[in-house]
Specification:
binds adenosine-5'-diphosphate, 10 strands, ATP binding, binds magnesium ion, 24% strand, alpha/beta, ATP-binding
Length: 250
């Protein structure tokens, strides 16, 4: 197990990852490399394994076979401190998962203060800076139910960023939003990309997946069936199943 982070190699690497739930194989032989400061989008039908892949990358699911590296450190090594690994990865899910009984600011400063030992003043200053950046400066003192869905999801992104993650995993973060609120959340992801944040995101927003991706992976039945640049996958897909999926959805 390498203790020194390898900052020159891929930020995230998955090799021959296999994940089963009971008898069903949900990921098989998944290989993935995510270079620093790049965006990888995962596309594919419901049930193809996108969420499971993200959950395995964050060690929320234990893999059955294969290995995963973060900054060159094998994080699936049983000796690794899983909590420490998760602290380096920010995650945002489909449903805004802010705590309803805490203000936006309290939601955002919770992990930095409790998990990372940052003092209150510093945690709040950083939270306010991020809230300003994501256009939520005026919402720090509000409770989540006073925010629109788009604002809640942006606040959830701020919360994920508050621990200064190396890598951000975004799972269908616009799927639960009214259509008119999708754009403001996608704008945040665009801004993060421009700032150089490394991201892996599962999305049904194909236009967005194409626009923002340095790498697109098409998942089908737990396999990354096809991968390439956005231009390759959307403009000239090689696999019949990819073609069929894109015809149906675009
Ligand atoms: P996607 O995000 O692409 O829709 P998922 O990763 O959620 O796909 O699911 C992939 C497959 O794994 C599906 O068949 C789903 O039913 C199954 N699955 C996901 N999580 C579990 C679980 N905790 N237990 C059993 N089966 C699961
Ligand atoms: Mg999913």
């Amino acid at each position: 197990m390498s203790r020194n982070p390898d900052l020159n190699g891929p930020m995230l690497r998955m090799e021959s990852v296999r994940k089963t739930f009971g008898d069903s194989v949900v990921l098989r032989d998944v290989d993935l490399e995510v270079a620093p400061h790049t965006v990888t989008t995962l596309i594919g039908a419901s049930g193809s394994g996108k969420s499971t892949l993200l959950r395995c990358a964050n060690l929320l699911e234990e893999i059955d076979d294969g290995a995963i590296w973060l900054d060159g450190e094998e994080i699936t090594d049983p000796r690794v401190d899983q909590d420490a690994v998760r602290r380096r990865i920010g995650v945002v899910f489909q449903a805004y998962n802010l705590f309803p009984h805490m203000t936006v600011l309290e939601n955002i400063t919770l992990a930095p203060r409790r998990v990372h030992g940052v003092n209150r003043a510093e945690a709040e200053a950083h939270a306010r800076e991020l809230l300003d950046r994501l256009g939520l400066g005026a919402k720090a003192g509000e409770y989540p139910d006073r925010l629109s869905g788009g604002q809640q999801q942006r606040a959830a992104i701020v919360r994920a960023l508050a621990v200064r993650p190396r890598l951000l995993l975004l799972d269908e973060i616009t799927a639960a939003l009214d259509p008119e609120l999708v754009g403001e959340v996608l704008n945040v992801v665009r801004d993060l990309k421009n700032d150089g944040m490394t991201m892996v995101l599962a999305t049904h927003e194909m236009g967005f997946a194409r626009e923002v991706a340095d790498q697109v992976c098409f998942l089908d039945g737990g396999v990354i069936l096809e991968r390439g640049s956005a231009e390759d996958i959307f403009g000239n897909p090689q696999q019949e199943r990819t073609q069929r999926f894109l015809r149906r959805i675009v």
